[in-house]
Amino acid sequence: MGYLHLNIEKQLTEKDISKNALCSFLDIPRANFNRYCRDEFQRIDANLICKLCAFFGCTAGDLIEFVEEESDKALYYKNLKKFKT
Predict the structure, then answer these.
(1) Listed GO molecular functions (predicted)?
(2) N or C, which terminus of the chain has less Cβ within 10 Å?
(3) Domain range for residue 34?
(4) What's the CATH code of the domain at 36?
(5) Cα separations in angstroms, 32 against 39, 56, 75
């Protein structure tokens, strides 16, 4: 199964913003924020995504990326062949 990746680090680097400044804006602890940066989360709060988009001036699509794992691709093609026959 794939996973969601948040492009937070990329946005921070492009805009030359510190993690501390962003945590202050979001009003969340740095430890929680670091979990999002490392893709170590189970759920994403919609309000957090809205705040990040407002802060960075980007869309949710710019911020969230689906990363497909190789085993998923193999499974997809295997199942696709079943349905075609």
Answers:
(1) DNA binding
(2) C
(3) 3-84
(4) 1.10.260.40
(5) 11, 19, 33
